């Protein structure tokens, strides 16, 4: 494994989940793999869960870890050729990234969507430049358009908690005060489309996700109808993907908030969210504190999903 | 050991000091205990000594260490239920802290008094929330009201340098330009009250400490009288504890500065301070540079006190 | 080895380069040396390459690493005696540095020239205070006036790529939009003067370096003439050293930019620079992207130069 950005990078998902369960049973079994190997974690955006879980996964594998926090504002790399670099960009990407690559064995990169240009966000400039110029395996710690470590952890969690072989999984948009990227729903849909589940996506009109991720998945604009018989409710807010209103917030309608009445429409569904979560916007206190909520177990699987990715990259060095 | 905030959490202090001496003789003897164990250090306030000594102690024990610097200003966690979280608090304490807990084995937390509300400071909100919700052993790396790793290091230092079995130990207030919390004097008094010493506290009127820490200890308002026959002088500034003037600076009177003339009243007392120290405010150059000053040895024992606490927590996992 | 600031601290350079090649062949051969040893890296200025390469070298040797980022603005240490410390300096150097020293085994320090006072910069105050008061081996991670880890890496790189026993090495000034310290050229000249090379320095008039580093080296003000027959071109900008215009930028003349025409005057010279580099100011895209450019290989040798220094310090503990 050289790259981890999308579901397809994992190959067969059943095999990947089996590997995750094996790792979870004994986190330190592969500690020899990371001996004398160094993980460089490059953060262009701040992080709590991703940073902690990635560092923990790396340590489980016996790797050294170097964390580099780069302020998006101060990190001005020149990317064009021919430019006379007499301005505010002190370094060219063609030197900066190979140099980072030469002091480590694997690189993780976090770089969020900026909502300044859809083209820029969806080209995943920063991640792609690391892939192209670092000469090292690169994985996303949440890019502009995908968050595969989260979606893989979500899949592991669903496999742990499912009570039947082909569960109904509902991705539900929910309200939020600020514009959020589509990385989490994109990757969730990407993974669920490849998993052995019945995926339904529900959101207000105007919030349609990128068809390259949605593919054939069913979209149901009636949230209550979508919830009927669901085994898992995956809540998430995102801003508009569509070109003319890209990054906008069309609705903060709390009729979309997930409450007990809606959960009662489901088949005793488990409630999931990637966290951090706005209570009483995304979900009521009652639902998130109920036994149906598995958000903490889901977060704890971030360590496992990351460890599988690092393990595979180490095995492939 | 699950919690370390006060002297009583250590149990018998003589046993704890013996353990400290044993650890100090061979710091790496217990390295197996920390294998595959992770310490999370959460700093809401900046730190030099505590950060370095805690990281060192953790490494001595073979633990992995993750340092998390959280800006008090940016860390806005919702703590109430029922609130519609559409404002500036992106996460609820009920999710944030269990998630931190799930990626580590032991948590250290630093969170100073803010002097905005005595009730808030003395309820140790942040620390108590970590204890309640993290599901992991928690120790204070200086809270709002106590600094037990410092006081335990102070006790170890006194036991190392004492020349008689029941030394006279004087905690002396000394002037400082800014308002400082009571965490260090509170813990010092807390520990000395349980130790085999003769404790005297001296300070200007109005600087009385919390009676829950002072308990029966003698308070002598005449500094010179307090110093007579002392074996250890422990200098420290603190702001007012009393309700109506909580957090105020009543005096910057340099008549309370500790100088050679006052040290000459003692029984060749050793001079102690937790550092950082304002020279010629708290103490004169002459005293702190004299052979009687043991402030560096005291600081170096921070590694030892922390290692005993981590060792006990590891043994109890 | 107790101190590393200048070429002479390495002793015989041939021996040092041999040691570097041995380390490079098997980076983990000396991992036992660092067992239970802690490196403290103190940064008064930000760092990418130095931080990563030093951490990597330390890990190669099995050391624990603690990184301390200190903002120059907030780090106000009192250095004088007798001062009443009631102002903005909360700690005296005589306490701060010994305390840092007591939690580690080796200290690396980065502290750039400020260009406020030539006397201050060239006295290397911060570094010298660490050497004097920390009680531990200290190495420069770039001081105000030298950058020995860079120059040692440069020497290793030249030894790797040279095609004859006594190559001609040209240090060429090149234009840059901002004033840069002399640390890199000073150390380069310092090392080349001790190495088995033919050193020529070329720069516009007014950019003469400190004679204590230049010593007998040839200075040629005609850049083209200097390049004739060169085996290595080492490009670098620096601001004025001379007293009356210390720290000034006299020229941004792009006639000094290194381009293919100039490289054609050389003996197929390799192109070197410490990075980060301003393209089309210091060097054209064409030259830096040509096979003659060895800037990435040079950067990767930063890990090696640092590892030799740490290894020697560990062997000498």
TrEMBL record, chains A, B, C:
Occurrences of domain Aspartate/ornithine carbamoyltransferase Asp/Orn-binding (ranges): 184-305
InterPro entries noted in UniProt: ArgF'-like, Asp/Orn_carbamoyltranf_P-bd, Asp/Orn_carbamoylTrfase, Asp/Orn_carbamoylTrfase_sf, Asp_carbamoyltransf_Asp/Orn-bd
Binding site for carbamoyl phosphate: 47-50, 75, 110, 147-150, 274-275, 302
Binding positions (N(2)-succinyl-L-ornithine): 142, 176, 236, 278
Record keywords: Amino-acid biosynthesis, Arginine biosynthesis, Transferase
Domain Aspartate/ornithine carbamoyltransferase carbamoyl-P binding, chain residue ranges per copy: 7-160
Function statement: Catalyzes the transfer of the carbamoyl group from carbamoyl phosphate to the delta-amino group of N(2)-succinyl-L-ornithine to produce N(2)-succinyl-L-citrulline. Is essential for arginine biosynthesis.
Family statement: Belongs to the aspartate/ornithine carbamoyltransferase superfamily. SOTCase family.
Protein name stated in the entry: N-succinylornithine carbamoyltransferase
Source organism per UniProt: Azobacteroides pseudotrichonymphae genomovar. CFP2
Taxonomic lineage of the native organism: Bacteria, Pseudomonadati, Bacteroidota, Bacteroidia, Bacteroidales
């Amino acid at each position: 494994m050289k790259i981890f950005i999308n579901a397809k990078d994992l190959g067969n998902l059943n095999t990947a989940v089996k590997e995750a369960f094996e790792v979870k049973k004994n986190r330190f079994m592969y500690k020899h793999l990371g001996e004398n190997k160094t993980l460089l974690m490059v953060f262009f955006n701040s992080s709590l869960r991703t940073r902690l879980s990635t560092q923990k996964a790396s340590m489980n594998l016996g790797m050294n870890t170097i964390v580099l926090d780069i302020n998006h504002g101060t990190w001005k790399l020149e990317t064009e050729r021919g430019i006379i670099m007499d301005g505010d960009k002190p370094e060219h990407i063609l030197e900066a990234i190979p140099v980072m690559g030469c002091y480590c064995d694997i690189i993780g990169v976090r770089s969020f969507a900026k909502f300044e240009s859809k083209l820029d966000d969806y080209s995943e400039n920063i991640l792609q430049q690391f892939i192209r110029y670092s000469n090292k395996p690169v994985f996303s710690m949440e890019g502009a358009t995908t968050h595969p470590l989260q979606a893989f952890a979500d899949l592991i969690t669903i496999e742990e908690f499912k009570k039947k072989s082909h569960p109904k999984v509902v991705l539900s948009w929910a309200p939020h005060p600020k514009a959020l990227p589509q990385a989490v729903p994109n990757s969730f849909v990407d993974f669920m489309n490849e998993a052995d589940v019945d995926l339904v996506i529900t959101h207000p009109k105007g919030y349609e996700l990128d068809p390259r991720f949605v593919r054939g998945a069913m979209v149901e604009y009636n949230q209550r109808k979508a919830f009927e018989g669901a085994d898992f409710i995956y809540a998430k807010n995102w801003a508009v993907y569509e070109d003319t209103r890209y990054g906008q917030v069309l609705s903060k309608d709390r009729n979309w908030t997930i409450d007990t009445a809606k959960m009662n429409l489901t088949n005793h569904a488990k409630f999931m969210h990637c966290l951090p979560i706005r209570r009483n916007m995304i979900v009521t206190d009652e639902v998130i504190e109920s036994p149906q909520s598995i958000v903490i177990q889901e977060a704890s699987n971030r360590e496992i999903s990351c460890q599988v990715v690092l393990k595979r990259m180490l095995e492939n060095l």
